[in-house]
């Protein structure tokens, strides 16, 4: 993968530096149990989870820490951005990925310090990476997050690419996130479930 540097675009609100991280979850927040992991609604089909290491945080964890969920969410995003920060922006790794029956290359995206898919779990991180890839692609990307840690960006989705992403999703087991194209809408991930090709 080659490293690229995106500009400082995010405006994470000031929040305490906590050792928590974001996790993009493929479930609506309405499916979270009140005593289970914290879930912050992102869109109809996505929620943000908060983790400490590999363990999801619960409301009880946050209550004991004295930190509200929104503050913890902002702190996790600030931590993700700090992990990728360089002197002149944010480090983003990209490489071309050839997909069978798709005429264009798709860019596989990675970031230091966390799974790239988790950058879709907060408006500051998603806006930062979306703006950077928009500059590289010359237009707003169509995103694909078939499984945890696998994030791809392209300029359009056609049947060949959609079939490839669906295959990656089906083979992901518990790490599966979304088989559909994902759009940036006001900083939030929205799955494009309409049938047929997507061209942005």
Automatic annotation (TrEMBL):
It comes from the Bacteria. This is Uncharacterized protein. The lineage of its organism: Bacteria, Bacillati, Actinomycetota, Actinomycetes, Mycobacteriales.
